Amino acid sequence: MRSVTFAIVGCGTIACKHVISMAACQEARLVAVCDLNAERMEQIAALWHEESGEEQKIAKVAEFRELLADPSIQVIVISTLSSLHAEFAKEALQANKHVVLEKPIALSLQDADDLIRIASERNLYVQVCHQLRYRPLMRKIKDLVLGGELGEIRMGVANLRLNRSISYYQSANWRGTWEHDGGMLLNQGIHIIDLLLWYLGKPQKVYGELSSVHSFKETEDMAAGIISFSNHAKGIIEANSITLPANLEQSLFLLGEKGTICLGGGSLGRIDRWYIEGCPNAAEEARLLMKDTNEHLYMYQAMVDAILGKQHAELIDASEGKRALELIFAIYLSASTANVQHFPLSEFSTSMMKMR
Ligand SMILES: NC(=O)c1ccc[n+]([C@@H]2O[C@H](COP(=O)([O-])OP(=O)(O)OC[C@H]3O[C@@H](n4cnc5c(N)ncnc54)[C@H](O)[C@@H]3O)[C@@H](O)[C@H]2O)c1
Protein backbone atom coordinates (compact mmCIF):
# COMPACT_ATOMS: atom_id res chain seq x y z
CA MET A 1 0.00 0.00 0.00
CA ARG A 2 2.66 2.55 1.07
CA SER A 3 4.67 2.20 -2.10
CA VAL A 4 6.52 5.51 -2.63
CA THR A 5 9.58 5.66 -0.38
CA PHE A 6 10.91 8.86 1.16
CA ALA A 7 13.91 9.95 3.19
CA ILE A 8 14.17 13.27 5.02
CA VAL A 9 17.40 15.21 5.41
CA GLY A 10 17.12 17.93 8.06
CA CYS A 11 15.03 16.84 11.06
CA GLY A 12 14.38 20.30 12.54
CA THR A 13 11.23 22.35 13.07
CA ILE A 14 9.59 21.98 9.65
CA ALA A 15 10.41 18.27 9.32
CA CYS A 16 7.50 17.51 11.70
CA LYS A 17 5.06 18.99 9.20
CA HIS A 18 6.58 16.86 6.43
CA VAL A 19 6.24 13.67 8.45
CA ILE A 20 2.64 14.38 9.46
CA SER A 21 1.68 15.07 5.83
CA MET A 22 3.56 12.03 4.57
CA ALA A 23 1.84 9.81 7.12
CA ALA A 24 -1.56 11.11 6.02
CA CYS A 25 -0.74 10.30 2.42
CA GLN A 26 -1.67 6.64 1.97
CA GLU A 27 1.01 5.71 -0.60
CA ALA A 28 3.94 7.50 1.08
CA ARG A 29 6.39 5.64 3.30
CA LEU A 30 9.28 7.13 5.29
CA VAL A 31 12.26 4.78 5.20
CA ALA A 32 15.20 6.93 6.36
CA VAL A 33 16.08 10.15 8.14
CA CYS A 34 19.30 12.13 8.18
CA ASP A 35 20.54 14.85 10.52
CA LEU A 36 23.74 15.77 12.30
CA ASN A 37 21.71 15.68 15.51
CA ALA A 38 20.87 12.11 16.61
CA GLU A 39 18.14 13.17 19.01
CA ARG A 40 16.25 15.00 16.23
CA MET A 41 16.41 11.91 14.03
CA GLU A 42 14.94 9.85 16.87
CA GLN A 43 12.12 12.38 17.35
CA ILE A 44 11.23 12.45 13.65
CA ALA A 45 11.31 8.66 13.38
CA ALA A 46 9.10 8.38 16.48
CA LEU A 47 6.67 10.92 15.06
CA TRP A 48 6.44 8.87 11.86
CA HIS A 49 5.65 5.65 13.76
CA GLU A 50 3.05 7.46 15.83
CA GLU A 51 1.35 9.25 12.92
CA SER A 52 1.45 6.41 10.37
CA GLY A 53 1.00 3.42 12.67
CA GLU A 54 3.83 1.76 10.71
CA GLU A 55 6.34 -0.27 12.70
CA GLN A 56 9.00 -0.92 10.09
CA LYS A 57 12.39 0.38 11.25
CA ILE A 58 13.61 3.75 9.93
CA ALA A 59 17.28 4.06 8.93
CA LYS A 60 19.06 6.94 10.70
CA VAL A 61 22.19 8.36 9.14
CA ALA A 62 24.31 11.40 9.91
CA GLU A 63 25.88 11.56 6.46
CA PHE A 64 23.59 12.73 3.64
CA ARG A 65 25.50 10.84 0.94
CA GLU A 66 24.53 7.52 2.56
CA LEU A 67 20.96 8.24 1.46
CA LEU A 68 22.09 8.61 -2.14
CA ALA A 69 23.63 5.17 -2.15
CA ASP A 70 20.45 3.52 -0.84
CA PRO A 71 18.44 2.08 -3.76
CA SER A 72 15.33 1.65 -1.60
CA ILE A 73 14.84 5.46 -1.45
CA GLN A 74 12.88 7.10 -4.29
CA VAL A 75 12.39 10.63 -2.97
CA ILE A 76 14.59 12.81 -0.77
CA VAL A 77 12.93 15.59 1.22
CA ILE A 78 15.40 18.42 1.81
CA SER A 79 14.51 20.43 4.90
CA THR A 80 17.91 21.53 6.13
CA LEU A 81 19.01 25.12 6.57
CA SER A 82 18.55 27.04 3.32
CA SER A 83 22.20 27.18 2.23
CA LEU A 84 22.27 23.37 1.81
CA HIS A 85 19.12 23.13 -0.32
CA ALA A 86 20.65 23.49 -3.77
CA GLU A 87 23.77 21.44 -3.05
CA PHE A 88 21.81 18.51 -1.59
CA ALA A 89 19.08 18.73 -4.25
CA LYS A 90 21.62 18.63 -7.08
CA GLU A 91 23.37 15.62 -5.56
CA ALA A 92 20.06 13.83 -5.00
CA LEU A 93 19.00 14.39 -8.62
CA GLN A 94 22.40 13.22 -9.85
CA ALA A 95 21.82 10.02 -7.85
CA ASN A 96 18.46 9.61 -9.65
CA LYS A 97 16.27 10.52 -6.69
CA HIS A 98 13.18 12.69 -6.94
CA VAL A 99 13.23 15.68 -4.58
CA VAL A 100 10.81 17.50 -2.29
CA LEU A 101 12.65 20.76 -1.75
CA GLU A 102 12.04 23.33 0.95
CA LYS A 103 11.99 26.97 -0.02
CA PRO A 104 14.06 28.86 -0.99
CA ILE A 105 15.31 26.41 -3.60
CA ALA A 106 18.74 28.08 -3.67
CA LEU A 107 20.61 31.14 -2.49
CA SER A 108 22.03 31.96 -5.92
CA LEU A 109 20.63 32.21 -9.44
CA GLN A 110 23.35 29.89 -10.73
CA ASP A 111 22.30 27.15 -8.31
CA ALA A 112 18.62 27.60 -9.21
CA ASP A 113 19.43 27.28 -12.92
CA ASP A 114 21.60 24.21 -12.31
CA LEU A 115 18.73 22.56 -10.45
CA ILE A 116 16.26 23.27 -13.25
CA ARG A 117 18.69 21.87 -15.81
CA ILE A 118 19.62 18.70 -13.92
CA ALA A 119 15.99 17.82 -13.10
CA SER A 120 15.02 18.29 -16.73
CA GLU A 121 18.01 16.33 -18.12
CA ARG A 122 17.31 13.42 -15.78
CA ASN A 123 13.55 13.56 -16.11
CA LEU A 124 13.08 13.63 -12.35
CA TYR A 125 10.48 15.41 -10.26
CA VAL A 126 11.20 18.34 -7.97
CA GLN A 127 8.36 19.47 -5.75
CA VAL A 128 9.11 22.89 -4.24
CA CYS A 129 7.40 23.58 -0.92
CA HIS A 130 5.26 26.56 -1.86
CA GLN A 131 2.43 24.62 -0.25
CA LEU A 132 0.00 27.56 -0.21
CA ARG A 133 -0.57 27.00 -3.93
CA TYR A 134 -2.28 23.73 -2.91
CA ARG A 135 -4.69 25.43 -0.48
CA PRO A 136 -8.13 25.15 -2.16
CA LEU A 137 -8.87 28.85 -1.65
CA MET A 138 -5.61 29.85 -3.39
CA ARG A 139 -6.33 27.38 -6.18
CA LYS A 140 -9.78 28.94 -6.57
CA ILE A 141 -8.22 32.39 -7.03
CA LYS A 142 -5.89 30.93 -9.66
CA ASP A 143 -8.86 29.43 -11.49
CA LEU A 144 -10.68 32.79 -11.35
CA VAL A 145 -7.61 34.49 -12.82
CA LEU A 146 -7.18 31.86 -15.54
CA GLY A 147 -10.92 31.77 -16.30
CA GLY A 148 -11.07 35.56 -16.67
CA GLU A 149 -13.76 36.00 -13.98
CA LEU A 150 -11.66 38.70 -12.31
CA GLY A 151 -10.83 40.29 -15.64
CA GLU A 152 -7.35 41.63 -16.11
CA ILE A 153 -5.49 41.90 -12.81
CA ARG A 154 -4.39 45.50 -12.45
CA MET A 155 -2.71 45.48 -9.09
CA GLY A 156 -1.49 43.03 -6.45
CA VAL A 157 -0.25 43.93 -2.98
CA ALA A 158 1.49 41.57 -0.56
CA ASN A 159 1.92 42.69 3.05
CA LEU A 160 3.85 40.84 5.70
CA ARG A 161 3.83 42.31 9.20
CA LEU A 162 5.57 39.83 11.43
CA ASN A 163 7.71 39.66 14.52
CA ARG A 164 10.82 37.54 14.76
CA SER A 165 12.52 38.04 18.11
CA ILE A 166 16.17 37.77 19.05
CA SER A 167 15.45 34.30 20.47
CA TYR A 168 14.19 33.16 17.05
CA TYR A 169 17.50 34.18 15.47
CA GLN A 170 19.44 32.62 18.32
CA SER A 171 17.58 29.31 18.00
CA ALA A 172 19.83 28.26 15.09
CA ASN A 173 23.03 29.97 14.00
CA TRP A 174 22.11 30.01 10.29
CA ARG A 175 19.09 32.26 10.80
CA GLY A 176 19.47 35.91 9.85
CA THR A 177 22.72 35.38 7.90
CA TRP A 178 23.14 36.24 4.21
CA GLU A 179 25.20 33.16 3.54
CA HIS A 180 22.93 30.51 5.05
CA ASP A 181 19.42 32.01 5.34
CA GLY A 182 19.23 34.87 2.86
CA GLY A 183 16.98 37.42 4.52
CA MET A 184 13.47 37.93 5.83
CA LEU A 185 11.95 38.21 2.34
CA LEU A 186 13.50 34.89 1.34
CA ASN A 187 12.64 33.07 4.54
CA GLN A 188 9.25 34.46 5.60
CA GLY A 189 8.12 36.51 2.59
CA ILE A 190 8.68 34.03 -0.21
CA HIS A 191 5.33 32.22 0.12
CA ILE A 192 3.16 35.29 -0.33
CA ILE A 193 5.47 36.64 -3.04
CA ASP A 194 5.14 33.31 -4.84
CA LEU A 195 1.34 33.68 -4.73
CA LEU A 196 1.51 37.26 -5.97
CA LEU A 197 3.52 36.15 -9.01
CA TRP A 198 1.35 33.08 -9.55
CA TYR A 199 -1.62 35.40 -9.95
CA LEU A 200 -0.03 38.37 -11.69
CA GLY A 201 2.42 36.68 -14.06
CA LYS A 202 5.89 37.70 -15.17
CA PRO A 203 7.45 40.81 -13.69
CA GLN A 204 9.25 43.19 -16.02
CA LYS A 205 11.11 45.38 -13.54
CA VAL A 206 11.28 46.11 -9.82
CA TYR A 207 12.56 48.81 -7.53
CA GLY A 208 13.35 47.78 -3.97
CA GLU A 209 14.47 49.27 -0.68
CA LEU A 210 15.66 47.49 2.47
CA SER A 211 16.35 48.52 6.03
CA SER A 212 18.10 46.85 8.93
CA VAL A 213 17.28 47.80 12.47
CA HIS A 214 18.63 45.00 14.62
CA SER A 215 22.33 44.35 14.83
CA PHE A 216 21.94 40.78 16.15
CA LYS A 217 21.41 39.65 12.57
CA GLU A 218 22.89 40.53 9.17
CA THR A 219 19.81 40.51 6.99
CA GLU A 220 16.99 43.04 6.45
CA ASP A 221 14.18 43.77 8.93
CA MET A 222 12.08 45.80 6.51
CA ALA A 223 11.63 45.64 2.75
CA ALA A 224 9.60 47.39 0.11
CA GLY A 225 9.27 46.59 -3.58
CA ILE A 226 7.40 48.17 -6.49
CA ILE A 227 6.93 45.82 -9.42
CA SER A 228 5.81 46.45 -13.00
CA PHE A 229 4.35 43.57 -14.99
CA SER A 230 4.36 43.24 -18.75
CA ASN A 231 0.59 43.89 -18.97
CA HIS A 232 1.04 47.23 -17.12
CA ALA A 233 -0.20 45.72 -13.84
CA LYS A 234 1.56 46.94 -10.70
CA GLY A 235 2.67 44.98 -7.67
CA ILE A 236 3.65 46.19 -4.24
CA ILE A 237 5.47 44.28 -1.52
CA GLU A 238 5.65 45.69 1.99
CA ALA A 239 7.24 43.46 4.60
CA ASN A 240 8.79 43.64 8.03
CA SER A 241 9.76 41.22 10.79
CA ILE A 242 9.86 43.77 13.63
CA THR A 243 6.14 44.48 14.17
CA LEU A 244 5.43 45.11 17.85
CA PRO A 245 4.60 43.34 20.03
CA ALA A 246 4.00 40.21 17.91
CA ASN A 247 2.92 39.04 14.44
CA LEU A 248 0.11 41.22 13.12
CA GLU A 249 -0.85 39.72 9.77
CA GLN A 250 -0.10 38.79 6.21
CA SER A 251 -2.36 40.09 3.52
CA LEU A 252 -2.80 39.66 -0.18
CA PHE A 253 -4.84 42.13 -2.22
CA LEU A 254 -5.79 41.58 -5.86
CA LEU A 255 -7.49 44.29 -7.83
CA GLY A 256 -9.05 42.95 -11.01
CA GLU A 257 -10.98 44.60 -13.80
CA LYS A 258 -14.12 42.73 -12.66
CA GLY A 259 -13.48 42.00 -9.01
CA THR A 260 -11.47 42.51 -5.83
CA ILE A 261 -10.05 39.87 -3.53
CA CYS A 262 -8.35 40.59 -0.23
CA LEU A 263 -7.14 37.95 2.22
CA GLY A 264 -5.71 38.68 5.65
CA GLY A 265 -5.10 37.10 9.03
CA GLY A 266 -2.11 35.23 10.40
CA SER A 267 -1.83 32.84 7.49
CA LEU A 268 -4.10 34.37 4.83
CA GLY A 269 -6.99 32.54 6.49
CA ARG A 270 -9.41 35.46 6.57
CA ILE A 271 -11.43 36.84 3.67
CA ASP A 272 -11.61 40.64 3.89
CA ARG A 273 -13.15 41.01 0.46
CA TRP A 274 -14.27 38.57 -2.22
CA TYR A 275 -16.20 40.46 -4.83
CA ILE A 276 -16.73 39.23 -8.37
CA GLU A 277 -19.03 41.18 -10.65
CA GLY A 278 -22.23 39.30 -11.42
CA CYS A 279 -21.51 36.48 -8.89
CA PRO A 280 -23.49 37.26 -5.72
CA ASN A 281 -22.72 33.86 -4.14
CA ALA A 282 -18.98 33.93 -4.81
CA ALA A 283 -18.00 35.07 -1.30
CA GLU A 284 -20.12 32.40 0.35
CA GLU A 285 -18.53 29.67 -1.78
CA ALA A 286 -15.08 31.04 -0.96
CA ARG A 287 -15.83 30.97 2.78
CA LEU A 288 -16.61 27.26 2.53
CA LEU A 289 -13.35 26.57 0.73
CA MET A 290 -11.42 28.62 3.28
CA LYS A 291 -11.90 25.94 5.93
CA ASP A 292 -9.64 23.53 4.08
CA THR A 293 -6.01 24.21 5.01
CA ASN A 294 -4.62 20.75 4.23
CA GLU A 295 -2.29 22.17 1.60
CA HIS A 296 0.79 20.34 2.88
CA LEU A 297 -0.95 17.00 2.47
CA TYR A 298 -2.15 17.92 -1.04
CA MET A 299 1.41 18.89 -1.93
CA TYR A 300 2.59 15.39 -0.92
CA GLN A 301 -0.32 13.72 -2.66
CA ALA A 302 0.57 15.53 -5.90
CA MET A 303 4.16 14.28 -5.64
CA VAL A 304 3.09 10.71 -4.96
CA ASP A 305 0.58 10.82 -7.82
CA ALA A 306 3.25 12.10 -10.19
CA ILE A 307 5.65 9.32 -9.23
CA LEU A 308 2.97 6.65 -9.53
CA GLY A 309 1.92 8.16 -12.87
CA LYS A 310 -1.64 8.12 -11.53
CA GLN A 311 -3.05 11.26 -13.00
CA HIS A 312 -1.98 14.65 -14.23
CA ALA A 313 -0.46 15.96 -11.03
CA GLU A 314 0.51 19.62 -11.02
CA LEU A 315 3.86 20.03 -9.33
CA ILE A 316 5.72 23.19 -8.39
CA ASP A 317 8.93 22.41 -10.21
CA ALA A 318 12.29 24.11 -9.86
CA SER A 319 11.55 26.71 -12.53
CA GLU A 320 8.37 27.66 -10.64
CA GLY A 321 10.45 27.75 -7.45
CA LYS A 322 12.81 30.20 -9.15
CA ARG A 323 10.10 32.81 -9.80
CA ALA A 324 9.72 34.32 -6.32
CA LEU A 325 13.42 33.73 -5.71
CA GLU A 326 14.42 35.86 -8.70
CA LEU A 327 12.05 38.66 -7.72
CA ILE A 328 13.44 38.76 -4.18
CA PHE A 329 17.00 38.70 -5.53
CA ALA A 330 16.06 41.64 -7.78
CA ILE A 331 14.73 43.59 -4.78
CA TYR A 332 17.99 42.93 -2.95
CA LEU A 333 20.04 44.00 -5.95
CA SER A 334 17.89 47.07 -6.51
CA ALA A 335 18.20 48.10 -2.88
CA SER A 336 21.95 47.69 -2.84
CA THR A 337 22.55 49.51 -6.16
CA ALA A 338 19.70 52.06 -5.85
CA ASN A 339 18.67 51.06 -9.40
CA VAL A 340 15.57 49.59 -10.97
CA GLN A 341 16.25 45.95 -11.89
CA HIS A 342 14.93 44.43 -15.11
CA PHE A 343 14.12 40.75 -15.65
CA PRO A 344 15.64 38.30 -16.21
CA LEU A 345 18.46 38.94 -13.75
CA SER A 346 21.84 37.81 -14.97
CA GLU A 347 23.57 37.01 -11.69
CA PHE A 348 22.91 37.10 -7.95
CA SER A 349 23.88 35.30 -4.79
CA THR A 350 22.81 36.29 -1.27
CA SER A 351 26.44 36.12 -0.17
CA MET A 352 26.99 39.21 -2.39
CA MET A 353 24.88 41.14 0.14
CA LYS A 354 27.53 40.59 2.81
CA MET A 355 29.93 42.73 0.85
CA ARG A 356 27.52 45.64 0.32
N1 LIG B 1 7.54 25.62 3.65
C1 LIG B 1 7.42 26.24 4.82
O1 LIG B 1 6.35 26.74 5.17
C2 LIG B 1 8.60 26.31 5.74
C3 LIG B 1 8.41 26.61 7.10
C4 LIG B 1 9.53 26.64 7.93
C5 LIG B 1 10.80 26.42 7.41
N2 LIG B 1 10.95 26.19 6.09
C6 LIG B 1 12.31 25.97 5.51
O2 LIG B 1 12.80 24.74 5.99
C7 LIG B 1 14.20 24.80 6.21
C8 LIG B 1 14.50 24.32 7.62
O3 LIG B 1 13.90 25.18 8.54
P1 LIG B 1 13.73 24.73 10.08
O4 LIG B 1 13.03 25.84 10.74
O5 LIG B 1 13.19 23.36 10.17
O6 LIG B 1 15.28 24.75 10.52
P2 LIG B 1 15.97 23.97 11.75
O7 LIG B 1 17.23 24.70 12.05
O8 LIG B 1 14.97 23.76 12.83
O9 LIG B 1 16.31 22.54 11.12
C9 LIG B 1 17.35 22.32 10.23
C10 LIG B 1 17.93 20.94 10.50
O10 LIG B 1 18.94 20.64 9.54
C11 LIG B 1 19.95 19.90 10.21
N3 LIG B 1 21.21 19.93 9.47
C12 LIG B 1 22.12 20.92 9.39
N4 LIG B 1 23.16 20.56 8.61
C13 LIG B 1 22.91 19.30 8.18
C14 LIG B 1 23.62 18.37 7.38
N5 LIG B 1 24.80 18.67 6.83
N6 LIG B 1 23.08 17.15 7.17
C15 LIG B 1 21.88 16.81 7.73
N7 LIG B 1 21.17 17.66 8.52
C16 LIG B 1 21.68 18.88 8.74
C17 LIG B 1 20.04 20.58 11.58
O11 LIG B 1 20.71 19.77 12.53
C18 LIG B 1 18.57 20.83 11.88
O12 LIG B 1 18.00 19.72 12.59
C19 LIG B 1 14.61 26.24 5.94
O13 LIG B 1 15.24 26.34 4.70
C20 LIG B 1 13.31 27.03 5.96
O14 LIG B 1 13.33 28.11 5.03
C21 LIG B 1 9.88 26.11 5.26
From TrEMBL:
<dbReference type="InterPro" id="IPR052515">
    <property type="entry name" value="Gfo/Idh/MocA_Oxidoreductase"/>
</dbReference>
<feature type="domain" description="GFO/IDH/MocA-like oxidoreductase">
    <location>
        <begin position="138"/>
        <end position="261"/>
    </location>
</feature>
<dbReference type="Pfam" id="PF22725">
    <property type="entry name" value="GFO_IDH_MocA_C3"/>
</dbReference>
<feature type="domain" description="Gfo/Idh/MocA-like oxidoreductase N-terminal">
    <location>
        <begin position="5"/>
        <end position="129"/>
    </location>
</feature>
<protein>
    <submittedName>
        <fullName>Oxidoreductase</fullName>
    </submittedName>
</protein>
<dbReference type="GO" id="GO:0000166">
    <property type="term" value="F:nucleotide binding"/>
</dbReference>
<dbReference type="InterPro" id="IPR000683">
    <property type="entry name" value="Gfo/Idh/MocA-like_OxRdtase_N"/>
</dbReference>
<dbReference type="InterPro" id="IPR055170">
    <property type="entry name" value="GFO_IDH_MocA-like_dom"/>
</dbReference>
<dbReference type="Pfam" id="PF01408">
    <property type="entry name" value="GFO_IDH_MocA"/>
</dbReference>
<dbReference type="InterPro" id="IPR036291">
    <property type="entry name" value="NAD(P)-bd_dom_sf"/>
</dbReference>
